[in-house]
Amino acid sequence: MSNKLTTRNENYSNWYNELVVRADLAEHSEVRGCMVIKPHGYSVWEKMQRALDDMFKATGHQNAYFPLFIPKSYFSKEASHVAGFAKECAVVTHYRLKNDSETGEIVVDEDAKLEEELIVRPTSETIIWNTYKGWIQSYRDLPILVNQWCNVVRWEMRTRLFLRTSEFLWQEGHTAHATRAEAIEEAEKMLEVYATFAEEWLAIPVVKGVKSPAERFAGALETYCIEALMQDGKALQAGTSHFLGQNFAKAFDVTFVNKEGKEEMVWATSWGVSTRLMGALIMTHSDDNGLVLPPKLAPIQVAIVPIYRQLEQLEQIREKVMPFVESLRKKGISVKFDDDDNRKPGWKFAEYEMKGVPVRLAIGPRDLENNTVEVARRDTLEKNMVSFDDVEATVEQLMIDIQQNLYDKALKHRTENTREVNSWEEFTEVLKTKGGFISAHWDGTAETEEVIKQKTKATVRCIPLDAPEEEGKCVFTGKPSSRRVLFAKAY
Amino acid sequence: MSNKLTTRNENYSNWYNELVVRADLAEHSEVRGCMVIKPHGYSVWEKMQRALDDMFKATGHQNAYFPLFIPKSYFSKEASHVAGFAKECAVVTHYRLKNDSETGEIVVDEDAKLEEELIVRPTSETIIWNTYKGWIQSYRDLPILVNQWCNVVRWEMRTRLFLRTSEFLWQEGHTAHATRAEAIEEAEKMLEVYATFAEEWLAIPVVKGVKSPAERFAGALETYCIEALMQDGKALQAGTSHFLGQNFAKAFDVTFVNKEGKEEMVWATSWGVSTRLMGALIMTHSDDNGLVLPPKLAPIQVAIVPIYRQLEQLEQIREKVMPFVESLRKKGISVKFDDDDNRKPGWKFAEYEMKGVPVRLAIGPRDLENNTVEVARRDTLEKNMVSFDDVEATVEQLMIDIQQNLYDKALKHRTENTREVNSWEEFTEVLKTKGGFISAHWDGTAETEEVIKQKTKATVRCIPLDAPEEEGKCVFTGKPSSRRVLFAKAY
């Protein structure tokens, strides 16, 4: 813990990479593109999972589990899906190893070649809709509201911890409906769930919108998304919810008999968020001293560091604080009283700062005399001397205040870095010097979107759901446009 | 729901296969050996996970996540491990598909061949110990108490839902310790956790023991296990905890500097239970009418079926029961008031019986007049008329009674089907006519174990931890033996 992190100003990318490792969140494995999520990182992910899972269940969804492997032929069944997905993936071709009869080494047994290759799921629409075929006969069987927590693999050549890895963890919801309207309602409802989760738990303000046709999920008629802005002015897609129409029902022949006895194709949605949210969380709130976590997602919310020379003093401090510790725990606040005698207080302070513990208390012999305790908050780095009689109320209030402050700070940053732009010169200038979200008119064509991307690396992040109608001219072609969209460079 | 299940007496194996599908727990996918766990089955698994995870955390463990893929060469590093594991497995050889330039079909891109094949993890000791190498330098870094919830793949030719599938879900704990004694203590502690979980949650009595050397986990010095007895007299291994000695530390060169500044090899354990427990749960308690679930693991604990002709009657029933429903829910009891107007009461009764709902209530217009409700318990199939004023207390008590009754019944079955046997004639006779656990003397050699297995299909299930010392003669060879062991045919 002696070395400082690269600062965000020096090199934002290096800052991030160093922080993820130093805060004990994750590390690269020796397997290309696959990460190890360490206990501290995983416990944050678990808290996200629990909160999201509760929200899914409160909206009527159930969890299930589908196979890791998908037969290669499934991907050919939905034409636009295969173009988007089936290429960069892990292919299982054999099911046995053996000892080479000459060298004795372990080799692939060529006699155990699969008739049809299996693909490690990059996403599960195909195998799930092939399964739903057997579950759906009548309108009585609908809707199906199912979610799956699992690992997926998309082969990546350039990886970054949490943001882009070959294997990642996620949830994928897959729902089946009797009507188009009900499916669209579901896709929009789950977007709302994601937005609420991002703002209330991650403390990340998000823009709700729809993707341009070019940026849609492979196989979707509409892709809803939430977009967040990172501290370096780049955008990050934090979750997507897709209205899939009847594409997968057609591909896998999934029909139902409606109330009038007529056969119809089933309507579909899918929606997902992944361990990428860990990247968004880190990049939104953390600082040059390390990780900053919103209290609702912090595995340890309060760390108490005793300052002592003799073990007798440690015992006096313990006696003083334990009733307080128990009282906080009863209120659901996770507290660590760090009595590890192998580490010095200064080491512990740096450790909890790096790991993003929201509130750190320090208490020594003089505090015992004065009935005080030092309260340090991680988000502002402020320290205050507080009467021990008030510390419980102070800590409880800080849980609320820090959560709110992180959100407010992120919202302020986004507001200050969202700029209306009305000319191509302005567009390129803002992108070059400031970054952030650019609100601009666009003629709605894939061609213009592509040219802008080639010239500037900025893409249409989304067409905001709340964008008002406004007559305007495309910032690049000058053609007419009826509303502004958000451009940005993105992760 | 019109057709009856095959009965256990007719064909136990068919009964099981039909029940798993009819109770909506799981089904075979089109991917060889891989199952789909349906929402009802998955919600039971989730309850198991939650209970176990709480127990792991209460004993100081944290969760983490390690890669799905393991480089082939890792398996060669621990000699006995590779012999046990690396053979029947899914091998990833390529990382890209492409459209064939002639046919247009999707084919494996031969240009995208991996330099070293990747194995889909059959268990994670190798990759985890390769990772621990970077985490452990000093005694201060020990112990490491980590668990992982994940999917694993072991290629199987003959599969059965939950009991033996190529892909299954499990947890695998992997701990690292400074001393041999501490590692053994950990392995024994986790066996206790498993035994407590099996008895208190699954309501399955288990025998705690150690495996014979021939049945040990590949790479272990000692394998602790819990063994359960199914209704058909076959045993099922319900969980294992391994003392791995320094084998993996040696294989992956994991050392630490002790307090005296001397370098030492690290000591290891691993322990796991899987979705196989679902099979144990089903086979221990269920009957010819369908699934029977212990209340602690039932997704729906109480189902209420209103009996009515007119919707007005339904509303009267709803008004009567909703305060009671709310009151039960506040007590943490999950209740479903089934007002589905598309299904008749008889259909609902059969459905809840098949799905294992512990308590079913029925209430109709006459009950409203008489202030009564019909209470049916799934375990005994008893029905009683109860005053509505007493029904809440009755239901609460049934949650406890049914849990206890299932355990007692299973324990009685095991006790009645555990037989001391003192001759080879008796041994083969009991196996042929009765099955169950056979408590017999064995000379302790792998040769005798193997011959007995070849002749009878029975194996040494375990050497019970509480087996008293007793002079005796091996049931097969007549050589001296110092304690009885448990034999059985097993799943």
Helix-strand blueprint:
The structure is a homodimer of 491-residue chains.
Chain A: H1 12-22, E1 26-28, E2 35-37, H2 39-58, E3 62-63, E4 69-71, H3 79-85, E5 88-99, E6 106-108, E7 113-120, H4 125-135, E8 144-153, E9 167-177, H5 180-200, E10 207-210, E11 222-229, E12 235-245, H6 247-252, E13 255-257, E14 263-265, E15 267-274, H7 276-285, E16 302-306, H8 311-330, E17 335-337, H9 345-355, E18 359-363, H10 365-370, E19 372-377, E20 383-387, H11 391-416, E21 418-420, H12 424-433, E22 437-441, H13 446-456, E23 459-464, E24 472-473, E25 480-481, E26 484-488
Parallel strand pairs in A: 3-8, 16-17, 16-18, 21-22
Antiparallel strand pairs in A: 1-2, 4-7, 5-6, 5-7, 8-9, 9-15, 10-11, 10-23, 11-12, 12-15, 13-14, 18-19, 19-20, 22-26, 23-26, 24-25
